[in-house]
Known about the structure:
Number of strands: 11
CATH superfamily of the largest domain: Chorismate lyase-like
Number of helices: 7
Shape: elongated
Strand content: 35-45%
Distance between the termini: 49 Å
Strand order of the largest sheet: 5-6-7-10-9-8
Helix content: 25-40%
Low-confidence stretches: none
Structural class: alpha+beta
CATH topology of the largest domain: Chorismate lyase
Amino acid sequence: xxxxxxxxxxxxxxxxxxxxxxxxxxxxxxxxxxxxxxxxxxxxxxxxxxxxxxxxxxxxxxxxxxxxxxxxxxxxxxxxxxxxxxxxxxxxxxxxxxxxxxxxxxxxxxxxxxxxxxxxxxxxxxxxxxxxxxxxxxxxxxxxxxxxxxxxxxxxxxxxxxxxxxxxxxxxxxxxxxxxxxxxxxxxxxxxxxxxxxxxxxxxxxxxxxxxxxxxxxxxxxxxxxxxxxxxxxx
Length: 235
């Protein structure tokens, strides 16, 4: 193994093991060169390769830092946010911000395709990756279709997995948008107002009616969407 590969492997191992957390400043090139008794050029080569893989970010005149992992959601699949966070190697936690039962508004009826005003459950909650907010969830549940949701506290389980375990869904619709964080969203996600966010809106259908509409808002720089496709038979 070359010295360059050894340096590369040592730094990569410290990042992937969690010893060096996101935001950690990696020792300067001159310090690493002294530690490994090599030239700065050898260290620079290793750091450049790590930056290309996305594990570190190199900032001019500031140094090199461990990057925040970027999560990937499947566009055509309903996934548990807890699993998304755990796939990053980070601890997951969840907190309920609001739970209100109310009559549906005109906007609610559009989102859930309701013919008339009915009772709905309005929920807002946050999902965390480690100590940092990962996603803000804003959800409406049609209580005509899922009456048990009204008495569920959602203190210990998020609405998404709770619904998946109780209501067999037959179809879902995703809408993906780039948005800017408003005041309430910025506060919930711990970002500045106007920060670019990735917003995924989803409606889930079961037994001929929409059961829920959810809006999942992620800080844009920390999240990516992935979809897999197969070739069409048409030419």
